[in-house]
Amino acid sequence: MAPKIHESEYRFCLILWEVEPISSRELSEICHEKLGWSKTTTYTVIKRLSDRGVVRNENAVVTSLISKQEAQISEIDELLEKKFEGNIPAFIAAFAKSKRLSEEEISEIMKIMGEE
């Protein structure tokens, strides 16, 4: 399971996944523009995520060590265990009741479910 990425860190990672590899200076400028973060805040998040094995900061170049898909799967696994005791049908039923799915979305889900 991937290391935990908190909400504000996830917003940071969304930016990183789009622009990596990138210098920490350039990344701090983007985070200032998109998130309103100071340079210090950005560097603190880079350090925190680096310590947890989510990103690498080598020679002032930041890259991710975990893909967006890995982070999403980890979050879903945690949600599934915490809120649904690992019961996938209960999770899907709750999701389907809370969000109206289009025919296209249903078809896409059915296609995915048929793949093994």
Structural features, described:
With 116 residues, the protein is mostly helical. The protein folds into two domains: 7-68, Arc Repressor Mutant, subunit A (Orthogonal Bundle), CATH 1.10.10.10; 87-116, no CATH class. 67% of the residues lie in helices and 9% in strands. It is built from six helices and three strands; from the N terminus they run αβααββααα. The protein has a three-stranded antiparallel β-sheet with strand order 1-3-2. A hairpin with a 2-residue loop joins strand 2 and strand 3. It is elongated and about 45 Å long. The mean pLDDT is 92.
List keywords for this structure.
6 helices, 67% helix, mainly alpha, single chain, 9% strand, 116 residues, 2 domains
Compact summary:
67% of the residues lie in helices and 9% in strands. With 116 residues, the protein is mainly alpha-helical.
Question: Which helices and strands appear, and what pairs or packs with what?
Answer:
Blueprint: H1 7-19, E1 22-23, H2 24-35, H3 39-51, E2 55-58, E3 61-64, H4 68-84, H5 88-98, H6 103-114
Antiparallel strand pairs: 1-3, 2-3
Query: So what's the overall shape?
Result: elongated
CATH topology of the largest domain: Arc Repressor Mutant, subunit A
Query: Could you give the distance between the termini?
Result: 21 Å
Q: Count of DSSP E strands?
A: 3
Count of structural domains:
2
Q: Can you name the CATH architecture of the largest domain?
A: Orthogonal Bundle
Derived from helix and strand composition plus strand pairing, the structural class reads mainly alpha
Strand order of the largest sheet: 1-3-2
Query: Residue share in helices?
Result: 55-70%
> Whole-number radius of gyration?
18 Å
Mean of residue pLDDT values: 92
Largest sheet: 3 strands, antiparallel
